[in-house]
Write a structure and sequence with these properties.
single chain, mainly alpha, 7 helices, Arc Repressor Mutant, subunit A, Hypothetical Protein Yqey, Chain: A, domain1
Length: 149
């Protein structure tokens, strides 16, 4: 529960400092964590918490994309600020090259040879990369590697 405690501690500090954006983001993250615990009927471990935070970050990325298309720079700025706060709690994101290396390793271990084996590779690869790489990017790398295999 170290990550949950860190978020609660950071929320208390943000309240003392009057940082409204950080307070809002951390309260939303804690509420999402609580909802996930209720849905799963168990207390989340750090991996589960990372999953919840990653979902929240994904929502922000999608919102940023939508607001940019809608030419709403004010909302893009707000979402980017919220995303930056969430990213503080996620592990450092992997580079494209690191994803390729991890994907090649799983492809070799699983014996995947064609694009039809993508599901088998993704099911083994995603748990290893959870929170450190976006699913879209991992999927694109696996498709590229299996397409050229």
């Amino acid at each position: 529960m170290a990550l949950a405690e860190r978020i609660r501690r950071d929320l208390e500090q943000a309240l003392r400092q009057g940082d409204k954006v950080r307070c809002s983001v951390l309260r939303l993250a804690l509420a999402s964590m609580k909802n996930a615990e209720i849905d799963q009927q168990k207390t989340l471990d750090d991996a589960g918490i990372l999953g919840v935070i990653d979902k929240e970050a994904k929502k922000r990325r999608e919102s940023i994309e939508a607001f940019e298309k809608g030419n709403r720079q004010d909302l893009v700025t707000q979402e980017k600020a919220e995303l930056a706060i969430l990213l503080e709690y996620l592990p450092e994101q992997m580079s494209h090259e690191e994803i390729v290396v991890a994907a090649r390793k799983v492809i070799n271990e699983s014996g995947a040879t064609s694009p039809g084996d993508k599901g088998k590779v993704m099911s083994q690869l995603m748990p290893q990369l959870k929170g450190r790489a976006q699913g879209q990017e991992v999927s694109a790398v696996v498709s590229e590697l299996l397409g050229s295999a």
